[in-house]
């Protein structure tokens, strides 16, 4: 579904900017006028992390005139595996500072406005006001819900993506679209409360290269909306599976429609992580005394700080590659937060092992 260009074209580009963006000028449907629309546009990017990093790079390279980057965090060493806008020398510095440096190095005429604030319900409308569209690069559904509500209040299109492990989703929400375009919001995909218990990427991991793939898709959706080229992902959800190298499309309609599409979870539907029973620490010890094996599936850097007495250590990746290494009738699986333990327990239960999981992982019982 095509929509009119979101932004009116600015005046002529400078000679240097015209030279820098020459490959856009020859694109059918975009051309000089589309490039001038990009130069006149203002995009707000919420989050300068795994998704926000490639988005900022792509928007600056494309010649977007103004980019507002909203992030209150500092760069950590563990960010560098996926947050490609930051460098080793940036560790300990504000993430918004990396955004300014990287964007200026790509596009000297792009203006970067930084807001080193944590976006919440109280300030979201203020932080997003004045932009032509918003790209959500945050990593919790609590914040995503706030961003979506502010965009709905301001009538702004929201380019939206979520990524976890090897999987991702990308779409465009717009509750006040042009006439003839169906209004779709975040609640039409994830009704309130339906995604509250999703694990974080710190718990289950995320493929760094997939962040760049999805970030590029988000930036492309923004460019299409700004310039009016192509068909934005309005009413369509793209589901990405990096492990199989496939993308599928799911129609998305308003929840009030009789044809409404049920939400698609960000993890493969065949995984039933909640199938294994959970036990508390006292029950774990009782089962261990009765002969059950306590299996710790954390990584070596985690188990180096200590394990439960009598545990057998086997990282999840090694277990998934060779589940027959676990030769026991009863197992209690532990990890940091319980997510990986459930995955391991599912595999073991499929092999006939009576596997349970320490509820909440070791983090819950650390004291």
From TrEMBL:
Lineage: Bacteria, Bacillati, Actinomycetota, Actinomycetes, Micrococcales
SUPFAM superfamilies hit by this protein: Activating enzymes of the ubiquitin-like proteins
Enzyme class: transferase
Rhodanese domain: residues covered: 288-367
Top-level taxon of the source organism: Bacteria
Entry-linked CDD domains: RHOD, ThiF_MoeB_HesA_family
EC number: 2.7.7.-, 2.7.7.80, 2.8.1.-, 2.8.1.11
Keyword Transferase: yes
Entry-linked PROSITE patterns: RHODANESE_3
One example GO MF annotation: molybdopterin-synthase adenylyltransferase activity
This protein's UniProt keywords: Nucleotidyltransferase, Transferase
Organism in which the protein naturally occurs: Microbacterium paludicola
UniProt protein name: Molybdopterin/thiamine biosynthesis adenylyltransferase/rhodanese-related sulfurtransferase
């Amino acid at each position: 579904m095509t929509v009119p260009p979101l932004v009116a074209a600015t005046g002529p580009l400078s000679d240097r900017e015209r030279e820098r963006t020459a490959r856009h000028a020859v694109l059918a449907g975009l051309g000089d006028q589309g490039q001038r629309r990009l130069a006149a546009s203002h995009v707000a990017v919420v989050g300068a992390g795994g998704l926000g990093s490639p988005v900022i790079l792509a928007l600056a390279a494309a010649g977007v005139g103004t980019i507002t980057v909203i992030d209150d965090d500092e760069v950590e060493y563990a960010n560098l595996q996926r947050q490609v806008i930051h460098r080793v020398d940036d560790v300990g510095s504000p993430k918004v500072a990396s955004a300014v440096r990287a964007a200026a190095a790509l596009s000297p005429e792009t203006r970067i406005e930084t807001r080193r604030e944590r976006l919440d319900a109280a300030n979201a409308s203020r932080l997003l006001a004045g932009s032509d569209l918003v790209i959500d690069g945050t990593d919790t559904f609590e914040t995503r819900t706030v961003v979506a509500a502010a965009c709905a209040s301001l009538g702004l299109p929201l380019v939206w993506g979520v990524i976890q492990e090897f999987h991702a989703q990308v779409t465009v929400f717009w509750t006040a679209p042009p006439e003839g375009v169906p209004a779709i919001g975040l609640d039409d995909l994830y009704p309130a409360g339906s995604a509250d218990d999703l694990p974080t990427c710190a718990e289950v991991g995320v493929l760094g290269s997939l962040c760049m793939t999805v970030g590029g898709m988000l930036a492309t959706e923004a460019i299409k909306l700004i310039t009016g080229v192509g068909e934005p992902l309005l009413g369509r959800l793209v589901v990405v599976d990096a492990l199989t190298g496939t993308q599928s499309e799911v129609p998305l309609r308003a929840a009030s429609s009789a044809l409404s599409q049920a939400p698609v979870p960000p993890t493969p539907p065949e995984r039933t992580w909640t199938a294994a029973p959970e036990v508390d620490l006292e029950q774990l010890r009782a089962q261990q005394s009765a002969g059950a094996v306590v299996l710790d599936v954390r990584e070596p850097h985690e188990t180096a700080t200590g394990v439960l007495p009598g545990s057998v250590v086997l990282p999840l990746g090694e277990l998934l590659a060779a589940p027959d290494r676990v030769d026991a009738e009863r197992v209690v699986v532990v990890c940091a937060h319980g997510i990986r333990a459930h995955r391991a327990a599912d595999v073991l239960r499929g092999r006939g092992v009576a596997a349970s999981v320490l509820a909440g992982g070791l983090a819950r019982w650390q004291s």
